[in-house]
Amino acid sequence: MDSETLKIILYVLAGGVVLFGLIRLASKPKKCAVCGVDTKDEYKDEKDKNTPLCKNHLVERWKKDVISSVHNMMVIEPDFVHYPYAYLYATAEKLKEWKYTKEDQNNISTILDTIQGKICKECGSKATVAYFKKEDYNFPYFAKISALPVYLCKGCAVKKVEPFLRSSPKDFVEGVYAPTNDRGIYHVQEF
Ligand SMILES: [Zn+2]
Ligand SMILES: [Zn+2]
Fold first, then answer.
1. Which of 116, 186, 189, 117 lies closest to 158 in space, CA to CA?
2. Residue 159 — φ and ψ, nearest 5°?
3. Interval 71-88: pLDDT, tens
4. Strand bridging mode 150-152 / 129-132
């Protein structure tokens, strides 16, 4: 073996070691910001900042943030079996940024407009959520949602979503999103 060949072999080996280290680093679990246990679940707060949280603290934080939001929202029951990596919150601004069609954007805005004046079906308080079963949503076409929503308050809506969050088969590596500073829609996303 000449020295050139040996050099190449050494470079390849060194590259492999570096790559292996990077992969390990990327897949290393982070620590829950509240209790410190290992986790891969991420919470994306209202400022778009990711915080690692264990499943339990993630669910508690999400419920608290949704309940304290003053904005009306559309909530599509999550299908985490088929789309397990994230539960996104999109405002009109985000939908535009994410290149949803005008028809998609308009249908969401029309549905959000219907919440005003409705009463929560579960508890009779003021409704702030238009809730859809996952079967009502033909992923990813918001424009095709034609079913009538169930109107709920935030407290009753998070109660319906919580079991899906807790039983999700994979880690939320792309994040469960906090509701941001405008009305919007909760939905799953393919990555
Ligand atoms: Zn925790
Ligand atoms: Zn209610």
1. 186
2. -65, -35
3. 999 999 999 999 999 999
4. antiparallel
DSSP 3-state assignment of 132? strand
Ligand nearest to the CA of residue 39, numbered in listed order: 1
55-65 pLDDT, tens digit per residue, is 999 999 999 99
Q: Are residues 51 and 100 in the same domain?
A: yes
Rounded Cα–Cα distance for residues 45 and 68 (Å) = 14
The pLDDT tens digits for 137-184 are: 999 999 999 999 999 999 999 999 999 999 999 999 999 999 999 999
Rg (CA), the chain: 21
Q: Are 127 and 115 a contacting pair, CB within 8 Å?
A: yes
Q: Which residues surround ligand 2, an ion (CB under 5 A)?
A: 120, 122-123, 153, 156
Tell me how far the alpha carbon of residue 142 lies from the centroid of ligand 2, in angstroms. Answer: 25
Whether 49 and 139 map to the same domain: the answer is yes
Do 4 and 94 lie in one domain? The reply is no
Counting ligands in written order, the one closest to the CA of 58 is 1
57 plus 98 within the same structural domain: yes
Full residue range of the structural domain in which residue 74 is found: 40-188
Distance CA 19, CA 12 (A): 10
